Amino acid sequence: MAEEADDVDIMDYRGGFEKIDRKNSRYPYCIVWTPIPILSWLLPFIGHMGICTSSGVIRDFAGSYFVSEDNMGFGRPTKYWKLDVDKVCGNGPATWDKAVHDASEEYKCRPHNLCCDNCHSHVAMALNLMHYDNSTSWNMINLCLLSLIHGKHTSCVAFLKTWLPFFMLSGIILTFALTFNLQ
C-alpha cells in the first residue's frame, strides 16, 4: 500500500499510463530539480535541473563535458514538473527521447558555466529541439521561473531539504539584524 502512495499516474499520448516512481527516481516526461548546497540555501529558486526520458531516466548536465544518466549531480530530485507529451511537435515519445538524447550529446561537448551554459540550458535545448508547446524560445530563466511555479515536491522531506536551510539562514540573519538594531 505504501508503494502505491509513492506512484503518480501520468497519461501518455496513447492513453496508457506512465508511472512516476519516486522510490526509484523515475519521472517520465518530467523536468526534475534538486537544490545545490549553499547556493540554494541563499536563493532557493536556483538549483540543479535535469530532464527525463519517456521511461523516466534522468539526464542532467552535471559538469564540463559530462551529462549524467540516472545520477543527478547534487542528489535525488526534490521537485518535478510533469510535462504533457501531447505538446511535443512530432511523434510524441520518440521525438521527446530523440530531443533529450540530442541535447545530451551536444552538452557532452561543452564546458559547464554556472551563469551562462549550465544544466538549465541543457534542458532548454531539449525542449527547443522537440518544439515543446510550439516554442523554440526556452531558456534558463523561464525554466527557473516555470519550474518554481509548476514544480511539485517529491515528498515532505524533499520540501524541507529545499526550503529549511533558507528559512533557517533567514531567521539567523533576521535575529542578528534585530539584535544589533535594538542596541
Structure write-up:
- The protein is α+β, with helices and mostly antiparallel strands and 183 residues long.
- Helices cover 40% and strands 21% of the residues.
- The protein has 6 helices and 8 strands; from the N terminus they run H-E-E-E-H-E-E-E-E-H-H-H-E-H.
- The strands form 2 sheets. A 6-stranded antiparallel sheet has the order 6-5-4-3-7-8. A two-stranded antiparallel ribbon has the order 1-2.
- Helix 3 packs antiparallel against helix 4 and helix 4 packs across helix 5.
- The radius of gyration is 18 Å and the shape is elongated.
Topology of helices and strands:
Blueprint: H1 2-6, E1 7-11, E2 17-21, E3 30-35, H2 39-42, E4 47-52, E5 58-63, E6 66-69, E7 79-82, H3 92-107, H4 119-129, H5 140-150, E8 152-153, H6 156-182
Antiparallel strand pairs: 1-2, 3-4, 3-7, 4-5, 5-6, 7-8
Helix pairs in contact: 3-4, 4-5
